[in-house]
Specification:
418 residues; alpha+beta; Immunoglobulin-like; 4 domains; five-stranded mixed beta sheet; 13 helices; 20% strand; disordered N terminus
Length: 418
């Protein structure tokens, strides 16, 4: 009887211990623990940037560093990836791939950032293998080319005489003058008059190497629905690398959704793919609603119906955007009563204080201004300028977008020939 009682107690204890282990494992599987140390740096924070975030404006994960140690928990059962950097300088980034459980990081100062170590993440190991297979050959060639380019620049053998003149003018130009000078630079490049023969050969070699690298990327993405593939897809969409075509992007996302069901990044990735699939120029303008300066909701189609329109997506923080708009400003005064209008959409962050201050100083910006605060209406994304300062779109009286970033002459021609 005593033996039976002891066996019952033993079995009960084993069941309880098993349950405890299961509870502990469930807790671990529902959180990511990031911990580690820093070496050779006085940085106060480690910063993690998720896909599609803009480090200048978005709320990022900031992990405090105390006595060169840090620790952070993310409650999720999904593997994630970020770009990691130290607050001492945004110049060096490290892709970080992590999954549920504990991952240990050793992060070095910016000069030794390549020595960073990540232990405990099978996804980071996958990235290392990918980098060795795909990126390393390209990086080795690129580094060699960069050294030769620096040598040519130091001896003034990189740019032609015309190219050097353009460069010197750019160095001393204001923002509005730079707009024309950059266009001249593009023209010189297209005509083969910007680079010397030596530097052009180097850039051709770099381009060939880049194309070969892209072929390797496509091959990897076609064969692997991994977290690394997810990362590469988001880079392709954010920075318009155009490694994959639209069909391949959709196919990859479908495979990723099977590998990582209901993933945090899935919805926005699909939205980005859809915005890229529909080229803006040549199609009907994309309608949207946004508040005006008084907070009243305005529908774009109601404002531009039957008019030649310049849709100006800009921001008070974007100097080149303002310079481009200023060049078109005289057209508004000249033709605003001839079935022509400008609609500005200011992409601002946190509040409209900077916008109101700018408009109070620039009293000749008299056309209607709408506000896109914190990307709430995804207007930049719909017009495929997400990640940039903005864009100017010329819309004809039938609602067709006929040009992006048009010249003064293009806009005037559209007005006079409507």
């Amino acid at each position: 009887m005593k033996i039976k009682s002891l066996l019952l107690i033993l079995l009960t204890s084993l069941v309880i211990l098993s349950c405890k282990d299961q509870i502990v494992e469930e807790i671990i599987l529902n959180e990511i623990i990031i911990e580690g140390t820093t070496v050779g740096t006085d940085a106060k924070q480690i910063v993690l940037v998720a896909p599609y975030q803009d480090p200048r404006f978005d709320s990022l994960i900031r992990i405090p560093i105390v006595n060169n140690k840090f620790s952070y928990q993310i409650e999720t059962d999904q593997p994630l990836f970020f770009d990691l950097f130290l607050d001492e300088g945004y110049g060096r980034l490290m892709p970080l791939f992590i999954g549920p459980g504990t991952v240990n990081l050793t992060i070095y100062d910016s000069d030794n950032f390549d020595d960073n170590r990540v232990v405990g993440s099978k996804y980071q190991d996958e990235y290392k293998a990918y980098k060795k297979q795909v990126e390393l050959p390209f990086n080795m060639i690129s580094d060699s080319i960069n050294e030769l380019v620096i040598l040519l620049k130091n001896t003034n053998e990189y740019l032609t005489t015309e190219g050097l003149k353009n460069k010197n003018l750019l160095n001393n130009a204001n923002q509005e003058e730079k707009t024309d000078l950059y266009k001249l630079r593009e023209a010189l490049s297209e005509e083969g008059r910007l680079l010397t023969v030596k530097s052009q050969k180097l850039e051709d070699l770099r381009n060939d190497s880049w194309l070969e690298r892209n072929e390797r990327v496509v091959d990897y993405l076609t064969k692997n629905a991994s977290l690394v593939s997810y990362y590469q897809l988001t880079l392709d969409l954010q920075f318009k690398m155009n490694v994959l075509d639209y069909r391949a992007r959709r196919d990859l996302l479908k495979r990723l959704d099977n590998s990582f069901p209901n993933h945090l990044y899935s919805s926005q990735t699909l939205s980005m793919i859809e915005s890229h699939e529909n080229p803006v120029v040549g199609n009907q303008f994309i309608d949207f609603r946004a508040p005006d300066l008084e907070g009243k909701s305005v529908k774009l189609s109601h404002e531009i119906n039957g008019k030649v329109t310049v849709l100006d997506l800009w921001g008070t923080w974007c100097g080149p955007c303002i310079a481009k708009t200023n060049k078109l400003k005289p057209l508004y005064e000249k033709y605003k009563n001839q079935n022509f209008t400008i609609i500005g959409v200011a992409g601002e962050f946190k509040n409209t204080k900077a916008l109101n201050s700018f408009l109070n100083l620039n009293t000749d910006w008299t056309w209607k201004q709408l506000v896109e605060l914190e990307r709430e209406n995804k207007i930049w994304q719909q017009y495929a300028v997400d990640g940039g300062g903005g864009g100017i779109f010329l819309i004809d009286k039938n609602g067709i977008v006929i040009a992006k970033d048009p010249s003064y002459e293009q806009v005037e021609h559209a007005i006079l020939n409507q």
